[in-house]
Each structure stands twice: as C-alpha cells, then as structure tokens.
Amino acid sequence: MNDESSKFLKLTNIEQLMPQEETLEYAPKKNQIIIGIPKDPSINENRIPLVPEAVNLLVENGNTVIIEDGAGEGAKFSNEQFADVGANIVSSANEIYQSDIILKVAPPLEQELEMIGNNKVLLSSLFLPNSKKSFFTKLISKKATAIAYEYIHDKSGALPVMKSISEIVGNSVILIASKYLMSNKYGKGKLLGGVPGISPAEIVIIGAGTVAEYAARTAISMGASVKIFDNSIYKLSSIQNKIGFNVPTSTLHSNSLKTALKQADVVISAKFTSNGISPFIISEEMVSNMEIGSVIIDVSIDQGGCFETSKATSHDNPVYISQGVTHYCVPNISSLVPNTASYSLSNIITPMLLQISEYGNTEQMLVHDPHFRKGVYMYNGILTNNNIGSMFGIQSQDLELLMAAFGSKY
Length: 410
Prior knowledge:
Layout: H1 3-17, E1 34-37, H2 52-60, E2 64-68, H3 79-84, E3 88-90, H4 93-96, E4 101-103, H5 110-113, E5 121-124, H6 133-141, E6 145-148, H7 160-182, E7 202-206, H8 210-221, E8 225-229, H9 233-243, E9 249-250, H10 254-263, E10 266-269, H11 284-288, E11 295-298, E12 319-322, E13 325-328, H12 338-359, H13 362-368, H14 370-373, E14 376-379, E15 382-383, H15 386-392, H16 399-406
Parallel strand pairs: 1-2, 1-4, 2-3, 4-5, 5-6, 7-8, 7-10, 8-9, 10-11, 11-13
Antiparallel strand pairs: 6-14, 12-13, 14-15
Helix pairs in contact: 2-12, 7-8, 7-12, 12-13
C-alpha cells in the first residue's frame, strides 16, 4: 500500500468517527388507548361498532377495550365472547364514558352526554336532522372532540363507513319493498318480480350512489323493472357500468319524474348530500298522483327525507299511509340485520383505531391523516362544522387553524 492510499484510509476512518448530520424521521409512538363501548339505549339500535374478532386484534396490539354488560346482545354477541378475547365487561355506563375513545353506532342521547368525561373523544353517527342545539352545547361544555362516521373520508375521497352501511341498506330495501308490496293491507298484493305473462313491479330509485346500486342489483335479480333518476350524468353512467346491465336512467326532470311516479309500484329515495341535509325532491302533490297501494321507502330520512310526506318511523312501527301510499321511513335500516351490520362497521372502524394506537393518540391521528380529520365536527369543545353552526346558531371555527393552536406541542 503506497503512502497516498494509507493517508486516504486514515482520513476515511476519521470521518466515520466524527459527528454526522442527524436525519430526523417521524416515528409514531405506539401507545395504549382505552376504548369504551356502551350498551346503546337508543330505540331499536341493535348494532355494535366492534365484533369480538376486532376486539381481539385491538387487545393483542396493547389496547384496552371496555364493554358494558349486554352491549352486544342485540347483534347476537355474548359477554363471554368479548371476555374471551380480552375485553373488560363492566356494569357501569359511567365507567365506559371515562374511556379515551367512546365508540357508538347511534348518536349519544342527552343522558349519555352527561356521563362523558372532559376532553374525551366521541366516535359515532350524527344524524344531523334529528339533532338538537343542546346536543352540541353539551359537547362544548365537556371540551369533547367528536367525529361523525358520516363525514370520515378515505384516500379515494369516498365515505367508507357510509358506503359499507349503504351496501347493506341497498340490499335490504328491496326485501322490505317486496314485503309491503305483497301486503293486502299496505300494498297492492303484487309480486315484485312478476311471473310469465304478468308484468313485473315498476321500481323507481332516486339517487345513483351505493344504496341505489345495491338496490338495483337486488331488484333486477328478483325480476323487477328498475329506473334510476339522478342529476349527475356521470353517476348515472357509472351505475350502469357497475351493474353491468343497461338499466333505464334519467335526470331529475320534473315531467319525466312525475310520469315515472304515476307508474311506479315502489319508489326508493337514496339521495344524500355532504352537508347532512337531503334535498327536497318529491312534493305531496306528486305523491298524491301515485297509485293507491304503492310503496315509498325514504332511505334519505337519515338526512331529513326527500319526500314532503316523509316523517321518521321506527322498526317497531315502520310504516304509515299518506295519500293512499305506504311510507317506510326508518332511519337505521341496517339495524334490521344487526349481526351483518356490526361486522361491516367493525371492518371499517378497526383499522382506524389501530392507526390511532400506532400514532399514540387521536390528536396525532388527526394531525397526520387529513381523510380521517374530515370526520371532525367538534374539536376540544369548539364546533368546527360550519353547516351545524349555521343550523343551530353556534359559532364555528376552522379546524386547521384550531389544530395549529392546540397541536403546537406536537
């Protein structure tokens, strides 16, 4: 080895021992989170947000899941099933509401809000048309962070929780329609699919989203005739491609819609908006021109309904007759199949909770996941949804600015 090579190796060794520029990389700190699931006191709410398999996964990843006694019974999950996978079963609802994250399906009732500890995170549905100002003022007083399933987005811009539930609802509404259309009391005594020599039932679907897609698939498979209305040509084209069948479609022109309603045996409204309030589309006069014994299913009742004649009903008393037309306006249709719906919800919610655990807390999840962040309507007791603020006369603030202030320590 010559002298020059020897000098080069000595210099190289010295450089390796000298302090190097530090490369900083964010590494989420995995942390235990406490998740509380209360027994839902809401009428006919039988779903639960996490199934036993999901609880097992969360517990194995170092988290604590507390479930109120009997919370899963409506969905056919026993206390023993949850206890066997590591959940803590408690009899006190108050204990549940002291968890880091309170997980529900339906929005909390007023008496539940009283139990929520300060600075907790609430993850649930919102059902904005059924909400009262006192609901939000109570969350404000508790300095809560509240996240609505209806508003959470995924990376594609879709609403994953709503899409999951909509698939179930789309399948269910056709079975519901068939039941009431066949009825002598509420319907026409008519078979949905017809038989050779007899025309099938005419089904009109308003909206061309996920509910409409799955409703159309089920109706067509049963032999019914389907027509879909929507204002978006793109959505109408997309639903035809997804169904793989040249189902008749139309934009929401008044005359063509009126004609279709007069001929319809079943009308399903599945038109939703991002602001939480469904558009008013069908007037009382248009309903009065429908045939006696026709059936309306207003899936949009979750957002207030698309029919002037719609009013919310329940699973105990699901229908009423107005203008000679049977109306089915149950908000939580998927609760008819609570076991299936619970698995569907759990499949979407569990990865979110695991990610929160990976980040260390919900705050960090909100900082780093803009899609999940869209679900926030209350942040540390401050309303961040302008639509809600305008509806109830509550001042709202921009979430991004609030996070910059509250989250500066992160």
